[in-house]
Design goal:
Two copies of one chain form a homodimer.
Chain A lengths: L1 E3 L1 H14 L4 H16 L10 H9 L10 E5 L3 E5 L5 H19 L1 E9 L6 H9 L3 E6 L5 E2 L6 E3 L4 E5 L6 E5 L6 H9 L9 E2 L5 E2 L2 H7 L8 H18 L4 H7 L7 E8 L7 H16 L15 H13 L1 E3 L1 H11 L3
Parallel strand pairs in A: 3-4
Antiparallel strand pairs in A: 1-13, 2-3, 4-12, 5-8, 5-12, 6-7, 8-9, 10-11
Helix pairs in contact in A: 1-2, 1-12, 4-5, 6-7
């Protein structure tokens, strides 16, 4: 397996983005987030997504020069137009602004309408936690999943993120509404394996753990069946009602590319305005201890808190280099060559 | 099937609560919420829960005279001690206060520590929507579910609610973190049926759809496996960090009865501070139309938006009376007899 050091990957991706016309600062931020995603094991939205993002820029679906502009300021709530700028820089701006409001008022809620794909949603949870804030964020997307009870795709696979800062490792939940991502289906199929649990429906409408079959029907399963389906609908509607942007149904009609013209919600809360660090440490560590000391389901089985495995992968990949698909790495290096 | 009219049920439950020592106003509010839960089809937390609530009062686990007292006011955020008062009146107070803050500031976040079981969490979503506000709320609970990867119960089955006001019927998601409730397991077992999907683990650690087996192992399945498990942990920690109250681990140690000394979060947002009613109507109705016109999974299958089935049950039960278990109804009538 080929492994690439963090700095080399980041520099290469940055060159690719500069070549695509991105301004220096934005190219640096986007390269960092893509590299961090691969570093943390979210390969689908890291290096592997660079070519597609460049393609979107070339098609004019992302405006590399655009930044968020404010549309409304309600004090605790601020609403921005993302102006179809890079989803990553827009989202970083919005979460940062939420933490700035929270630093003064305890809580900040910032929304973006008319933005583009933010890549790995967890990035903005880690961002809030890194600054010492509780973070909650989500995005809507185009239709890419059937609702519970439907055969055709009609709801978004909207990721939902919650993050808690913690000295020894932030606690971060980053979950999409489908039980498995298309990335997981592909990886599992390429290994000739089955999914650990049913992940969608076959042609006859039966649940199946065969990844290839689900890739064909496009009938991926919402997590928890009707629960993930309903949650996806609510996240979509809240995104729109809080930002004035397009719903999933609207993105289907007017958006260009995956998540084109989507909208996003960023909430930051300053935990130290509510409790002392000592209280917080006790609450977090007491809960993690309760998890870690529970009887494991399998002998010697390990129990992870949300975000723990990302951190583990991060440390491993920082030490050993980030594993890459050689074909993809070569193509990104090609995009990075000076012309 | 015996059906009881709404007003008769409410009056009977109110008498039972008055007999248990509750003050007039609180008894009226609690009786209304219990009756509404049964009316909407959430039988487990309606009439069926009255005896247990009275038992908690008798044991001194709920202080029928207590109301929330403010502990901190951060502007948008207010934190209250629930003083172990009735979970229903505490929660109604908190969501109402959140809407009052939101009416001025756009958003209000109110938390309760040291409160008691709020019964049906959806009630406070409907409450916010009824007043014209977006609502989000959740509670933590004692350990009653194994985390993903554990055999022993160590996390709460914390319900999460999101609500959107809509003239033709509010859109309300009310979901616990387990795939099925213990109530559903019991009802399914009594009918000698199997669950529609695996709902927990058997003695050997295999997934099973046999409700009785899961009731014995107490190993109910989090929705979406690791996803519902992680979400439950985050909801628990956010409850505590936002309220200064006990975590699930703390409730396990110090709480009395189900949800004794738990903490809760209530968020209200005024949607009309952000968008016009016309925009909102279009966003909601466009999305519901997209759901309703999707290809159904089964021929002539119906697709429901979150909250739609509760509303349907409500209308049916208001017309025909609320179905009751005769034994339970007789026992509540007994509690309601003057002494």
């Amino acid at each position: 397996m080929t492994r690439i050091q963090f700095d080399e990957m980041k520099a290469t991706i940055k060159l690719a983005f500069l070549n695509a016309g991105m301004p220096e600062e934005k190219a640096g931020i986007c390269a960092e987030i893509h590299t961090e995603s691969s570093r943390d094991g979210v390969y689908s939205h890291g290096l592997n997504r660079v070519e597609r993002f460049v393609d979107y820029i070339n098609k004019g679906w992302v405006d590399v020069n655009a930044s968020p502009t404010i549309e409304a300021n309600l004090g605790t709530i601020e609403i921005y137009n993302g102006n179809l700028g890079p989803g990553i820089t827009n989202a970083i701006y919005a979460m940062n602004r939420a933490t700035e409001i929270a630093a003064i008022q305890g809580l900040g809620l910032v929304t973006l309408n008319n933005t583009t794909h933010w890549m790995r949603g967890g990035a903005y949870g880690w961002q809030a936690a890194e600054k010492g804030f509780l973070g909650i964020c989500w995005t809507n997307t185009e239709s890419c999943m059937p609702a519970w009870g439907t055969k055709s795709t009609c709801i978004g696979n909207n990721p939902f993120i919650m993050a808690i800062p913690r000295k020894e490792g932030h606690i971060v939940l980053d979950m999409a509404m489908s039980q498995f991502s298309y990335g997981k289906l592909q990886v599992t199929r390429l290994k000739n394996e089955k999914l650990p649990f049913a992940g969608g429906f076959d042609q006859d409408g039966n649940l199946t753990d065969e990844p290839g079959v689900i890739e064909e029907t496009r009938r991926i399963l919402p997590m928890g069946y009707w629960k993930g389906s309903g949650f996806a609908v609510m996240l979509d509607l809240f995104s729109t009602l809080l930002s004035g942007g397009l719903t999933t149904a609207g993105i289907d009609k007017y958006g260009k590319g995956s998540c084109g013209s989507c909208c996003q919600v960023f909430i930051a809360i300053d935990p130290l305005k509510i409790n002392t660090q000592e209280f917080i440490d006790q609450a977090l560590n007491g809960t993690l201890e309760q998890l870690k000391t529970a009887v494991p389901a399998n002998e010697n089985g390990e129990i992870f808190y949300p975000g723990e495995q990302s951190l583990k992968t991060r440390l491993e990949n920082m030490e050993m280099g980030i594993p890459v698909d050689e074909g993809i790495w070569e193509r990104v290096k090609e995009l990075a060559k000076s012309r």
